[in-house]
Amino acid sequence: QNNFIAAVFDTETTDINGEIIQTGFLGLSGNFIYDNQQPLVWGQNYKPEGKITFGAMATHHILPEELENCPPSSSFSFPKEIIYMIGHNVDYDYEVSGKPEHVKRIDTLAMSRKLYPEDSHTLSAMVYRLQTDKKVAREMVKIAHDAQGDVRMTYWLLCQLIEEANKRLNETSSSFRLVDWESLYQFSEHSRIPDVMPFGKHKGVAIKEVPEDYVNWYRRQESPDPYIIKAFAKVFPIKSV
Description:
Layout: E1 6-13, E2 20-28, E3 40-45, H1 54-60, E4 84-87, H2 90-96, E5 104-107, H3 108-115, H4 123-130, H5 134-141, H6 147-170, H7 181-191, H8 212-219, H9 226-235
Helix pairs in contact: 3-6, 3-7, 4-5, 4-6
């Protein structure tokens, strides 16, 4: 696990905001993804204090008795040397890992939504979308919801997204390209600023068409989504008092 600056990371948990019972890592070294010909995959199972819900069990198929001799969930900590945490809906894995302060998050879900706005953006749906051989896609998604299987699939998706983003950037006058982890992080941050309202009474409405009174109301909420605040700021500048 040494010398990895970035890792594709996935967790399986006891329930929606629960304890980690399985981790998967795909370690990436060097300046960027192309420096990794044979990425190393590893993971660990953990024993939780609480029960695994049946909903979670139906997702990952991990049974309590399989975790009996594993280290406790509370013993997990995200490696200090890994700066870039890459995941599909990475915020979930970040939060159940205790929100490690040193980490920069790169979200393949946000990048998928930005590059391909229509249809489903689940990990499996994106593999079916981007893998031209649908039989190969079917074999790939059959291993979904095992943490080590998911990191392999997310890594494959990440490679496709980087290629597509650079292809589109080449067609613009912008000099920005995805050439290292930091530029990938910047693109992920940009992708997380929504073009359409993702939830609430105006879900599905273009940000620029959301009524201004709703925008002002949302800004006053106790813990608003920072990326929605950024999206509003582009269209509705905050008036100085």
